[in-house]
Design brief:
Layout lengths: L6 H25 L2 E6 L4 E7 L4 E4 L7 E7 L6 E9 L7 H12 L11 E4 L3 E9 L10 E9 L2 E9 L5 H11 L2 E4 L2
Antiparallel strand pairs: 1-2, 2-10, 3-4, 4-5, 5-9, 6-7, 7-8, 8-9
């Protein structure tokens, strides 16, 4: 039989709701990407919204025209993301053709029988990527590959995402990081 809520019971319910909202907010805040800026050769700045737990290591062998950043988990080899930035000023590149050529070269080592290009579009980027599954990965290699390229202002960004888990959340996070990338002239 239904009975009206007592004030003590109602206070407990309200406290539970408040704690649930606060806890959910804390969890969501932890997962929110952090906008990180990278000074590129040539004076441009690349901004990426990176998941806060990811460890970054800029490539120390960068040249005057390129720059690479590697992302990994805090511990273990669960995934690797490599983003390379190439200044394409003065050149008109066909990003789709670049990605398609790269994918066709790798297709023979994958389990897939055909290459499927997917769009990667964001407020300031336009690009393409493909997904392949390694037919026979070695013990220290990754099984799943997502690779592509995109244009951002006068930059070409190429990327490789490696995981051992199909449908890994890191793939979605990396693609979102790239989709929302921004670039500007440095100071």
């Amino acid at each position: 039989m239904y009975q009206p809520m007592t004030s003590r019971y109602r206070s407990s319910v309200y406290m539970f709701i408040v704690l649930a909202v606060l806890t959910t907010g804390a969890v969501m805040a932890e997962e929110m990407p952090v906008r990180r800026a990278y000074l590129l050769p040539g004076g441009q700045v690349l901004a990426l919204a990176v998941p806060p737990a990811w460890i970054e290591s800029p490539d120390s062998t960068q040249s005057h025209a390129s720059f690479s950043i590697k992302f990994s988990p805090p511990a273990g080899p669960a995934f690797r993301v490599v983003v390379s930035v190439i200044d394409q000023r003065g050149r008109l590149l066909d990003v789709r053709a670049i990605v398609e050529r790269s994918g066709r070269e790798r297709l023979s080592s994958g389990m897939e029988d055909r290459l499927i290009l997917e769009d990667l579009r964001g407020p300031r980027v336009k690009g393409y990527f493909y997904r392949l599954t390694d037919r026979a990965p070695k013990p220290d290699e990754y099984t799943y590959l997502v690779q592509g390229a995109m244009s951002l202002r006068d930059l070409l960004l190429t990327f490789t995402i490696l995981t051992n888990q199909a449908g890994a959340a890191e793939v979605t996070a990396a693609l979102e990081m790239l989709r929302t990338a921004e670039a500007a002239r440095g100071v």
